[in-house]
Amino acid sequence: MRCGILVLAAVGVALSTEARAQGRITGTVTAALDGRPIAGAAVTVVGTNRTSATDASGRYEIADAPSGTQLVRVRLLGFAPLTQTVQVPAGEAVTLDFQLVAAAVQLEGVVVVGYGTQERRDLTGSIASVSAEQIAEVPTANPMQAIQARVPGVDVVAGGSYRPGVPMNVTVRGVRSIAAGNQPLYVVDGVPLAGGIEDFNPAIIQSIEVLKDASATAVYGSRGSNGVILITTRRGAAGALDNSIHVTYDAQYGGQSALHLVDMMNGPQAIAERREAFRSAGRPTDNASVFTPDELPQVQCATDVAYQAAHPGCATGTDWQRLVLRTGYQQRHQFALTSVAGNSRLSLTGSYFDQDGITIGQGYRQYSGTVSFENTYRRLRIGVTATGTRSIADIGADASLWGEALANNPLGLPYDSAGVPSAALCSVCTLKIKPTPDALRVNPLRQAAGFVRQQTRNRLFGSVFAELQLGRGFSYRVNFGPDLGNRMDGQFQGANVVLNQTPIGNAQAQRTDAEEFAYTLDQLLLWNRTAGNHRFDVTLLYGIQTDRSTTTTAEARNLPYDDQLWYNLGTGENPQPPQSTLSVWKLASYMGRINYAFANRYLLTLTGRYDGSSRLAAGHKWSFFPSVGLGWQLGEEPFMRRFGFISGLKLRASGGVTGNTSINPYQTWGGLDRTRYNFGSGSAAGYRPGAIPNPDLVWERTAKLDAGVDFGLFRDRISGTLDVYRERTSDLLLPRSLPASTGFTQVLQNIGKTENRGWEASITTVNLPGAGGGPRWTTDLSFTHNRNFILALASGAGDDIGNRWFIGQPINIGTNPAIPPFDALRQVFYDFDYQGIWQLADSAVARRYGQKPGDIRVRDVNGDSAITAADRILLGNTYPKLLASIYSRLTWRGFDLSFLLQGRLGYTMNDAFGSAATRLFERFNNLNVAYWTPMKCDGGPDPNVLDGPAGMTAAQQAAIPGCNSYWNPSAGRENPLYNDVNSSSPAYRPGGHWRVRNITLGYTVPASLVSRFRFSSLRLYAQAQDPFVFTSYYGYDPEAGSGATPPSYRTLLIGANLGF
Prior knowledge:
Layout: H1 2-20, E1 22-31, E2 42-45, E3 51-53, E4 59-66, E5 68-75, E6 82-88, E7 93-95, E8 98-100, E9 110-113, E10 116-119, E11 127-131, H2 132-135, E12 154-158, E13 168-172, E14 185-188, E15 191-192, E16 205-211, H3 214-217, E17 228-233, E18 244-258, H4 267-280, H5 287-290, H6 296-303, H7 305-310, H8 320-323, E19 328-341, E20 344-356, E21 363-377, E22 380-394, H9 399-407, H10 444-450, E23 451-471, E24 474-493, E25 498-499, E26 502-503, E27 507-531, E28 534-559, E29 579-598, E30 602-613, E31 622-632, E32 646-660, E33 671-679, E34 682-691, E35 700-713, E36 718-737, E37 746-769, E38 776-792, E39 828-831, E40 834-837, H11 843-848, E41 856-858, E42 873-877, E43 882-892, E44 895-910, H12 934-937, H13 954-958, E45 988-1004, H14 1007-1010, E46 1017-1030, E47 1049-1059
Parallel strand pairs: 1-7, 1-8, 14-17
Antiparallel strand pairs: 1-4, 2-3, 2-5, 5-6, 9-10, 11-16, 12-13, 14-15, 16-17, 18-19, 18-47, 19-20, 20-21, 21-22, 22-23, 23-24, 24-27, 25-26, 27-28, 28-29, 29-30, 30-31, 31-32, 32-35, 33-34, 35-36, 36-37, 37-38, 38-43, 39-42, 40-41, 43-44, 44-45, 45-46, 46-47
Helix pairs in contact: 9-10
């Protein structure tokens, strides 16, 4: 009895002593960039099990912290972990605040991986992260635009146009497929998407992870070849203090202007070029012979002083580009509410984005709302997220508008009143059909006024999960993700719209309605256990995904009035028969993954996925995709302690196989086409084989190898990653030509191989640590080098010159922009080698080739004194040898300044504006260039004599602009660019450019000041998006490809983030 009493007394004394030896740590966690509170961050006393989580206001409390000197660490997905030292008095409270810095390169922290999360230090795969803070810096409605230049190995460019609302073109570690697509798989809150990502509001995203190598992507099996992009949306944070509600309102307003306009000829420059073109063709050069009556007033205004005096304010010509331009406008408003009540979390977000494009008739509006709820009850955790979006894109006349604006004669006028440049200067003006009678161009303002096209998209996406803790380390989780979308694409052409140089004369319209419904259902069994130095984390999955899409198209002509657009098509006099489609596919999957760690230093990941698809024929539906990943925390080995400057060092290696599922659902079946057959004295409807079936089609498969190192130096003042990789894709899907006797022209087969190899690196430096309230300055550097090669085409076949597919050369995707698939930034150039201009001294040699001085000169490769198709050679490709980016940010006393710079270096550009827009022919406008003339470049006494001796040396000619770059204008032919074998050769030249993606200056108002107005936080900022591009490209933008696409634009805006 006495012993029991003594034991109890001893325990009581120990407990009271322990209680007195404990203290309390409280504080707030905020973002270093803008001071906003961060919810959901894990705060831990290092070396203990004392932990807490921040609430919606960023506050935390650890009530039972050990007294004495303690290390406290904060971690959150998307931010660099931060550790601080604090002295905890026994029985008292101490305040410790943290400011977290967003970081895409981390050696530690929580990372989202396929079907779960993982500590970054335990990863064996190549995964890059972009945080919500980094995403918020980009004023866009497209989440992929927000990661431009942020992640090594990921190339994000405009999808062939800078029209508002156009999806981005995203590739991960290059392209590997010719016909099956190269877009990555998008996964939102664990749900793989069947459609695109452009409908998702970037403001609801907590983080974006990019999975690159086999160890990371093999969990998605047949869909992992092109990389995987994981999107995690925001949710209310599980706070440990009390019930709380946090409200934020973000607003931004800005204007937009064209980043660059093409330098086309103005009126006086066109006059001089026209006279030279007539002189070169041996025609009279007086005004009446050279210019039409419609052009003469402008010619006189530009050249006749007396005419100018008699007609003040007369027009010397028209700048057609500026007529179809306007100042763009952009605004975004977002409201967010997060609430925490015990074990429940709630998040509500609503946003509105509105952009009026810089091209007349173009704009984009997006409405978005998201609700997220999560609750934990004992061993059961459930959650649901639902996002609804509606977007409206006004497309207008688009590319055709800019084609007319670039090529139209600058001596023509848009309105019918003689000499009047704009409608504002006349009482009654109507738009001309053609600015000049002889031009093969139409008035772009007339096209814009009568051509209306609008695309409306509605989408409802959800993710629902339930997770039950079964005990002994086991848990069971169910994920369900429905995705419903519909799209309406309406197109209307008024009676005055010009096609084939003639007004169509009757209003006509077309409407396409499309609907897609997909859902994913995954069941997961999870197990994790630690036994001594051994740690296991096992994931087993069975999942299904189904997709059903339909389209219906109707059109009509001779509509009674314009205001009806594409509605009530039945009122047309001759409605066309409607067309409709139906497509269904299903995918079933089994997956297993084992993560093993020994002594927290030696890491192993084994993954296997078995996918079956309805897209493939019997016998080929199922395929297995394995991977293995190895990791070694070398920096934690005892023998590494001597290298004190190394704060972290991990080696990684992985290998495995993934697939590409981009086969049309019925491509293995063949199909039937509707036709008519002669039947008796008439005809009857029937069907005929439309495509030859191929039941042997299989998925493209990519074998991936990767080796990487993650490092930290000088207490992580310098940290980064370096990866080298090789990826080989086999069973490439390609169309194979068939003999005409089969009744078909081609069949799709698995007959090719490609390879990608390269390296990528990310480096983060802490230039100024911000200690003691001083400035904090960090820099992120990113470098990517990737090359792709075609290894094989059809069995035994060599190069395919028609498609520009060459063994050992990069992949060429499409040869005609009007025929998909086509990618202007994935081109290989096989053409004539431009050598300059034939000079007077070369007259005799030029005659052998049917040329004369002033014409284009190309290389006679085979030396047969004739320029034929056999003289074409490989000139280069559009793939950059190096992608580089620099992101730097400085914060101090509430101020923040950051910029993002990106470079695409070492490619060959096809600058079509240097050829097709420079015909130097009488009927169209031309690029404003210095061109060859005999008097300027040969110094001969008679400009009409082109085959006499040269009047100057080659060195003298080289010093005169235009003597060896642009040819002599000619009114006799569209020489040398129309129906001429060497027509495009001047367009190819070395390319490379740098672009300033973003500059942001912000100020976070001190909390002591904003609290007077009952606000919790306030940040004001000014921002420039894409303000500068440094390039020698003649066209609008080197990333938009050649052709008449709308110009890229810069955005200047101001904004405010307000917290309640």
